[in-house]
């Protein structure tokens, strides 16, 4: 878990360099599957390429706050992707069991961003770029859903909630993801097949206006 000294160090790094490193977290709640072990993780802060990190990201009081506007530039010059401010985990894998867990806060009115995803690289041609994307929509007091149709939770605005995504990846085949909301299993589905993948969290914005999300107590797990 992030300590006060580490928070100050990470904030200084966030303002001067893209690489941030976090130590192994201690479990703040019993994970849904008891054999998981929290492990060290590291990440880059991805943000509009023409802005400093501090223009779209801050780390204060143990909270990562990320925001982006619909008119912002993409992460790299010339990219056709939507604007983003995200933590891109360095821990990549093709098989085995991994999990991302964290508490998330979404201000009211935010609509359009992906706040957690598993991104797939070196994937077979014609296959999807993500195994899962959790998106926020401005309906029913704030709705969190996989893609645009599978509802994880409603009434999410202006409160902290815990998301845990467990992924069992199979080399050369299809694995399984499980999504938990406040400790309750909400969705189980097959992943998109073989790939090199990694977790991301933040705001990858597909909507209009300003998108913001806050994160705390992020842990990374292996089994």
TrEMBL record:
Position of the signal peptide: 1-29
Alphabetic keyword roster: Signal
Domain Alginate lyase positions: 40-219
Keyword Signal: yes
Protein name: Alginate lyase 2 domain-containing protein
Organism, as annotated: Lentzea roselyniae
Upper classification of the organism: Bacteria, Bacillati, Actinomycetota, Actinomycetes, Pseudonocardiales
């Amino acid at each position: 878990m992030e300590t006060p000294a580490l928070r100050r160090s990470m904030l200084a790094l966030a303002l001067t360099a893209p690489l941030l490193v976090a130590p192994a977290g201690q479990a703040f709640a019993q994970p849904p599957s008891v054999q998981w072990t929290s492990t060290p993780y590291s990440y880059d802060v991805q943000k509009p390429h023409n802005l400093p990190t501090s223009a779209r990201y801050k780390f204060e009081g143990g909270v990562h706050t990320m925001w982006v506007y619909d008119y912002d530039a993409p992460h790299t010059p010339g990219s056709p992707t939507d604007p983003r401010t995200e933590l891109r985990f360095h821990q990549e894998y093709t098989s085995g069991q991994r999990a991302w867990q964290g508490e998330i806060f979404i201000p009211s009115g935010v609509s359009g961003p992906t706040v957690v995803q598993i991104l797939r690289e070196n994937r077979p041609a014609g296959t999807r770029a993500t195994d899962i994307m959790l998106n926020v929509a401005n309906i029913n007091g704030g709705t969190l859903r996989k893609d645009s149709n599978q509802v994880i939770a409603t009434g999410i605005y202006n409160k902290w909630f815990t998301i845990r995504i467990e992924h069992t990846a199979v080399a050369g085949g299809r694995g399984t993801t499980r999504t938990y909301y406040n400790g309750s299993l909400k969705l189980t589905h097959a992943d998109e097949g073989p790939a090199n993948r990694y977790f991301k969290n933040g705001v990858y914005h597909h909507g209009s206006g300003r998108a913001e999300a806050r994160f705390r107590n992020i842990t990374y797990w292996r089994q």
